[in-house]
Design goal:
The complex is a heterodimer of chains A (352) and B (294). Chain A has 352 residues and is mainly α. Chain A has two domains: 245 residues, Orthogonal Bundle (ABC transporter involved in vitamin B12 uptake, BtuC), CATH 1.10.3470; 45 residues. Chain A has 16 helices and no strands. Chain A is globular, with a radius of gyration of 23 Å. The C terminus of chain A is likely disordered. Chain B has 294 residues and is mainly α. Chain B has one domain: ABC transporter involved in vitamin B12 uptake, BtuC (Orthogonal Bundle), CATH 1.10.3470. The chains are: A mainly alpha (352), B mainly alpha (294).
Chain lengths: 352, 294
């Protein structure tokens, strides 16, 4: 087991090293897409900290995202800030989102399941409409930052490393929460909220804390988005597609697991980024995405990683038993799997 | 006074049509315990079907319903059979929500591919300026009244089906308790498929009237589903009378805001009302307490 943990750590280190090197390839488009991928990784992990761990499916993450976008946009506009100093404002975007999350959570977390989903959608629409109707948000025209006078070849690098930092921080936070007492309380709520409450979990406080943490991370990413995309528009800052995409990413990878949302985002966002650039076939890309999802939902209902993990565990158990049945036969280290791989069907099922 | 009456009639009549679409949604929720996110785009699909029948075959939109309602019914049964029924296990609820969403984006993609993203209007006799009559000092289009009447007839038919037929009895039993319904010999899968078909089928009628009243494109489905969800939650999930009442109530409210304040804010009032109601009555205006339990 110890060696497994070591392998994992080594794998993560390699992954991180590769991630750190991507901008050095000098391909501007690659860096640009990678920033979006990392933002979605961060957002999906943040979504999972609340929704995945507690089982409350939120389709209102864009509320936090948009709040972050507009906070940074309004501060830079009124203080007339430009350039690198803007990067220091991102935590403020997160803070504003966290402040919004408190009343939002106090209202929405009173209801459960379907009703909760719909309340988050409703709050989302209220925010989007406020952004397009108030005059101080710039209305439908939005807010456009001052032109960034940086070298075109490396203009996205600072965004990339900030996004990487936020994504890694979100993952580490999710991992820390997962194993902690707080994380156990969240998962107890997911399994049976009433019983968790009976056992002394202060459910409202715990849910709200996770909601606010999730909002903070998403808001920070929103702040990053403003300068990266050079606009704060109601329909992009508060984007219904954002809500759905991160939920789909988490479900695709494995809902409520640690690695699932990361995997889902890494898998899905490059495809979405590519699809958006296909001007002629963008609708075909949309249809393919929907079909893909139906296939995943029906054949891998618990997400890719858990299903594959289950199959793998079952397969290992099968191999081990085969080795034991042979008694004095070859030790488990030898390639007995080569013969077992041919017929894992019926026996695997009885093993699990 | 004239303005007030106008806002009131508009709101009540249009609310009836929304009520019809919301009844389909709440019926599906009650029987299958899932939110059909695709209901919005199905309404738009119904509008496009009526549009095609009118522009290419010159079939009047009301006569066309004889074709579109059965077609949408079959589509609903097929969706339930292919994508909803296979789902099992603990995450069934959230998975079925996502399956419906996948169906919605596929439908949206197909509609975009076929019709493009331009806003369409029906351009039938019913949406022309001649098809109006004068009441309370302003001109009210016939389609408002006819749409409302259509909604009333269809909702009455659904009520009749639910409370006066053997099938309706099975539907109500399934809504109350799946396991018990199965134990007394009800084919729950069949009930679920037919209910989904009925819920989607009524969107053909709702979509036709919606298309006569508003310009639409495939993206309109999102706005519509959010409104329908707000109505269904306000009325109390699974409550058919509640959905009707809530629809008339909020659409009238939105129509009042339209007239007295600013059309841009009417949607905010709409969702604001939802949030406000949920703070004080989490089970919705007409919902029973059980409706929100696990």
């Amino acid at each position: 087991m110890r060696s497994l943990a070591l392998w994992r750590a080594a794998g993560l280190a390699v992954l991180l090293a590769v991630a750190a090197l991507i901008p050095l390839a000098g391909n501007v488009e690659l860096t640009q897409v990678s920033v979006l991928v990392l933002m979605y990784v961060g957002a999906a992990v943040a979504w999972n900290i609340f929704s995945g761990f507690t089982g409350y499916i939120s389709l209102g993450a864009a509320v936090f995202f948009g709040t972050g976008v507009y906070t940074v946009a309004l501060i830079t506009k009124h203080l007339n800030l430009v350039g690198g100093v803007v990067f220091a404002l991102y935590p403020l975007g997160g803070l504003a989102a966290a402040v919004v999350a408190v009343p939002f959570g106090l209202v929405a977390l009173r209801v459960r399941r379907h009703t909760f989903v719909v309340v988050t959608i409703a709050v989302f629409f209220i925010f989007q409409l406020m952004a397009s109707n108030f005059s101080w948000t710039g209305g439908a025209v939005g807010i456009i930052p001052q032109y960034l006078n940086w070298d075109q070849a490396t203009v996205y690098n600072p965004f990339y490393y900030t996004a990487l930092l936020i994504a890694v921080a979100a993952i580490v936070l999710a991992w820390a929460i997962w194993g902690s007492r707080f994380g156990l309380q969240l998962r107890a709520i997911r399994d049976d909220e009433d019983r968790a409450r009976g056992l002394g979990v202060k459910t409202m406080r715990v849910k709200l804390t996770a909601f606010v943490i999730s909002g903070f991370i998403t808001g920070t990413l929103g702040g990053l988005y403003f300068y990266f995309q050079s606009d704060a528009l109601p329909q992009y800052a508060f984007n219904p597609f954002f809500d759905l995409t991160i939920a789909l990413m988490a479900f695709l990878g494995g809902f409520g697991t640690l690695a699932g949302p990361i995997f889902g985002a890494l898998l899905l966002e490059p495809y979405l980024g590519w699809a958006q650039q296909q001007v002629t076939n963008t609708y075909v890309a949309q249809i393919v995405l929907g079909a893909l999802f139906l296939i995943v939902i029906i054949f891998l209902p618990r997400g890719i990683l858990p299903t594959v993990g289950e199959k793998l565990t079952a397969f290992r158990a099968y191999r081990r038993r085969r080795a034991a049945e042979r008694g004095a036969g070859p030790p488990p280290g030898l390639p007995v799997g080569a013969t077992a791989a041919g017929s894992p069907g019926p026996t695997t099922r009885s093993a699990s | 006074m004239g303005t007030f009456l106008r806002a009131l009639t508009d709101g009540v009549l249009e609310g009836g049509v929304y009520g019809l679409m919301a009844v389909g949604l709440t019926l599906i929720f009650g029987v299958l315990d899932l939110i059909n996110i695709a209901q919005g785009i199905m309404v738009i699909l119904g509008a496009y079907l009526s549009y095609v029948l009118w522009t290419h075959l010159h079939i009047d939109v009301f006569v066309g319903l004889l074709i579109t309602i059965p077609a949408m019914f079959v589509l609903g049964v097929a969706i339930q059979y292919l994508f909803i029924r296979p789902l099992r296990g603990r995450e069934r609820t959230s998975m079925s929500l996502l399956a419906c969403y996948a169906v919605a984006i596929i439908t949206e993609g197909i509609l975009y591919q076929v019709f493009g993203s331009n806003y369409l209007s029906m351009n039938t006799y019913w949406s022309s300026p001649q098809a109006t009559f004068k009441i309370f000092g302003y001109y009210l289009p016939y389609i408002y009244v006819l749409g409302f009447a259509l909604a009333v007839v269809l909702v009455a038919a659904i009520y009749f089906m639910l409370y006066r037929t053997q099938f309706g009895r099975s539907v109500r039993a399934t809504m109350q308790d799946h396991t018990a319904a199965r134990l007394v010999g009800i084919d729950v899968n069949r009930v679920a498929a037919l209910t989904f078909g009925i819920g989607v089928g009524v969107t053909a009628a709702g979509g036709m009237v919606f298309g006569e009243l508003n310009a639409f494109n495939p993206n309109t489905g999102y706005d519509l589903i959010s409104r329908l969800l707000a109505i269904v939650i306000l009325g109390g999930m699974g409550s058919i009378g509640g959905a009707l009442g809530a629809a008339v109530l909020v659409i009238t409210l939105a129509s009042m805001v339209d007239v007295y304040w600013n059309p841009e804010w009417s949607t905010v009032v709409f969702y604001g009302a939802l949030v406000l109601v949920l703070v004080f009555r989490p089970q919705g205006l007409f919902g029973r307490k059980e409706a929100r339990a696990q």
